[in-house]
Model the fold of this input.
Amino acid sequence: MRISRRELIRLGGALAASICVPALARETPVEVPVLLYHDISDGFRDPYTISPSLFAAHMEWLYNNGFRAIALRDIARPPGNGRRVVITFDDGYASYMDYAFPLFREYGFHSTINVIGSLAGTYLDHGGNRPMLAWDEYRHLLQSGGVDIGCHTHGLHSAARKGVLGVSGEALRKDLRTFREVLRRETGKSTDILAWPYGLYDAARVSIAREEGFRHLLTSREARFAASGDVAEIPRRNIDNLYDITSFRAGVEP
Done:
């Protein structure tokens, strides 16, 4: 009987998991790596892009090494058995649908997309016009049950590249409310996830976000999320083409 490479990987991963469960149960890590991806493309080479082949290699490595990609809302819950990871995407590039979603469905991985509301269905100009996911695609992704939508602000992503620090607190409050209104109108859903553009924020902005109902606040600080960590300041590791499998493993494993 002939089997495909994907089936071989799955069988190998299942065998490894069955062998290693007792050890993992005894040595469950107390920290959760939170990965930050942006665009998946062979056409760009920058800190916001990873090639499709390298991205696929990352996901296969996670799957084969017993990682479960959990929902962000579960990050502070007791871990149970096994190894956990959180996978996030910022901006909302259309490449997610082409390269990430098919793998996530195959591996049973959960993920979060932090959307720039005003750019849904348009383009983001960064080294060239990059197509963005549209609201009908977000509706499809939400129906899958394996994708959460977070806020990357509605229209403050640039703000002279200062993000939310480039506007007043009231402007931020208005923007967050606009994002939620649009999200509810387009998908019927709400969200309590906010990713700060460029990782820029301060205590006053955190306070405003929490007042507006955002509980899980994603930063760009490079670290793992500790079991005793604050979900209002969740660190993430930005992953790009510099992360070959060796460096990826070092960034994910404790």
